[in-house]
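Q: Convert this sequence to structure tokens.
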Amino acid sequence: MSDIYIPGIKSRFDTDTIIEGLMSVERLPRDRAQRNIDQLAAQKGYWQEVGRRISSLRDGARSLYSFQNPFTERIAQSADEQVISASATREASEGEYHFTVKQIAQADRFLSRPLEDSFRVDAGTYTFTVGDNEISFEFRGGTLKEFSDMVNRRGQDRLGASLIAVERGSRALLIESKVTGAQNRLGFTGDSEQLAYLTGMAERIDDSRREIPFAENTFTYLASPQYVNLDGSTLSVYAGGAVSVPVNPGIRANAPWVIQFETLTKLLPEEAGLESSPPSGPDIPPAGSISYGDITIENDPVSAPLPPWTPPSPPPRKDDMVMLSLVFSDGSKVSLPALNDTASFTSLRYNLDELGRGKNITALEITNNNTHRDISIRNVQIFNPDALGGFRPRNPVSTAQDAIITMEGIEIRRDTNTIDDLIPGVTINARGVSSRPVTLTVEPDREEIKNSIISLVGNYNRLMAEMNVLTRNDTTVIEELSYLSDDEREAMEERLGAFSGDSILNQFKNSLQRSASTPYPTSGEEQDYILLAQIGVSTDARRAGGGGYDPSRLRGYLEIDEKVLDAALETKLPMIRQLFGYDTDGDLIVDSGLAYTIENLSKPYVESGGFISLKTGTIDSRISQDQRRIETMDRQLAAREAQLKLQYGEMEGAYSRMEQLSSSLDSLSQQNSTGSNR
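A:
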């Protein structure tokens, strides 16, 4: 059937096959050009991959000596994270600190008695206070859920409410302050106070808050009055002064009553109070004179010779931070804890039960025995912290209080558990109460440094593997890379030896190998130079423990002995930092070190207009030239194919006409033969 000729459908002589055969010969130059483009595109991809590997190595090297290098990272390690934790920034200094957490900061959280699900909150104006902030809103009446949602919407980040399912069919209402600290007590006013009583959240209590005012006519001066000054509500006692302020009527020092006040201490310069000039001496009257006519005779002046003046020696400096004490009705007294020097007024609070144990307080004494320090005090008051404006919570989940911690024996009080103003660059978080000091250590982040070194070695080895494959025709180079996946291994085999004749790439590879084995200067006293191998990183780190010849270890790959590296990070950290980047001439610019060397070796290859860019640019130009040639050849081939089709079509047409003519002649001959026979 394949030999059947159908005019207009199938060529008699299979001209399509003939033309395709002829065109395949014509396309040979075009196919060679396309194969060349494919090879160039593959080479461009290889160069781009090398560029990416070099960039990764360069970035890793730069990170080890740049401004943000890991050697300046700090971490804070706590001996007991359940008591105190901390975080450190680069600004933190290395050191060891000891903390004792006496009390953690809390916020007021008050719980009602169980309320039926059918309980409804009356309409009204509900006002709450959190410290000095007031939250007030109108409520049109509704269920506990609706009231709780309203509190949360209006309270935002200061006040919250929630419902707790205590029993089936009943829930308790929890209203809480979201701000910790003794100064941020949760208060109820108006309809909110009535709701607290109605729900059993609070009960009425006598709020006998006692403020101790300062007035000139009430002081008892225990030293010269010139050392005491009253400015409004602030009492200042200068160095050497003492005063007693009465508490009238007296108050019994029982739990849970506290005394609270604000203090400020001011350090004086060392030369304060010293005479700078000698005394003037006695006041001598004029000597007098006598006159007769126009003649006046003056008496000799009277003189009083003074002994040589010797400046007085400065008084011995005395520092005594125990300046406050309570006086009791039995004549005894107790000193309050030592104060701290502060730049501004600081609030302090002490439990009276711990100070007086039931004694009757009659006075507050302020005695400044310092020679170079003044003290100011204001807002002294004694009160029951459980009483909130005349009522007390019946079911407090927690009560507002400050965090109290001691640092190196100095007591510190803050209204939050997150404290960032004690150690520069360190944020401390008080988490739980402790009876013994907890050690907090600020030290370099050695784990981050180690990871950065490992990352640099990893980037170095991947680049070295890439260059070994591209510059060598030996398949063992690939077989040595045991970590490759099947796809990666196949890709490596495709580019094996692709740049075996490239001298620049071989030169770069040799320079990298030399940089990893070169000693670099340091400022250490024990040695002036340090090698990468001394911190456990070398081309044959495992060989120190034995082992035979391994050619794969001679191709420039680096290995890490983690034990040696960890030990070096513990004992030689400054030298390790200088190994990677060091300012040898003191101009604050790094000019030596392995990372510095690698970055400078890599820069000409991957920077804008660098070697990789020139290589890929040249390849792009060659690809563009070949693509233009292919486009020209495609047009020529198309024209040639059209010409062949036209010629073969004309040939078949001529052949068909000849066949038709032959058939006509045969028919005419047959007709003539038939006529003759008749």
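The CA atoms of residues 36 and 626 lie 8 Å apart.
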